[in-house]
Amino acid sequence: MRVIKEGYLYQLTFMPRFFPVNCYFIEDEDGLTLIDAALPYSAKPILQAAEKIGKPIKRIVLTHAHGDHIGALDELKAKLNVPVYISARDSRLLAGDTSLDSTEPQTPIRGGVPKNIKTKPDMLLNEGDEIGSLLAISTPGHTPGSISLLDQRTDMLIAGDAFQTRGGTAVSGVTIPWFPFPAMATWNKEAALQSARKIQELKPTLLAVGHGELLRNPAAPIEKAIQKAEKAFTK
Questions:
Q1: What does the alpha-carbon distance between residue 54 and residue 51 come to, in Å, rounded to a whole number?
Q2: pTM higher than 0.70
Q3: SS3 assignment, position 85
Q4: Which member of 10, 67, 95, 216 lies 3.0 to 4.6 Å from 25 by CB, making a disulfide possible if both were Cys?
């Protein structure tokens, strides 16, 4: 596992050279917020990283409920007994429910949907909710209930899979040939594009995603990715 620190943010990357899967710590006054829970074997390295930082993990926030973002959730919940946060909408997906609301685009939910997760979320998030220094932003598209998290101290944004930066910066649903997996797991491209525009309007100082490197000063790459998505989705 690789760890990169940027201000209050720590990026923890599993398999960085081959199939990068990221989760994050955000450092607050009371301790650490873990954003996403990576892969099933990730619990021990995550706990070791927190121990090295020297602060306790106080809560777990999930950007969405795909398997590569909730893999170590049950083990971490059992060992830490801290509250788990997820969007109200993706709490259904965490429980294995892939049904769609009548008001939602009727494209099938894709990706690794959980089947045997025991953890029940303690807090359900909606747009504008605050978790320590973080502000919850509704960014559906990759899943119906995907959220991004804006650190209000720095304007750094953890976007889950709303974008990827592996192989180039792309909106969720745009296929990068040498790393197509986020696109393959995207629920609705039109919603993803709307969420990408919403993220752009926030003018983040740094973009942190589920797959790929940290993107510092991301305005230009985000703009280019949105333009590419607009062309790709109108074909």
A1: 5
A2: yes
A3: strand
A4: 10
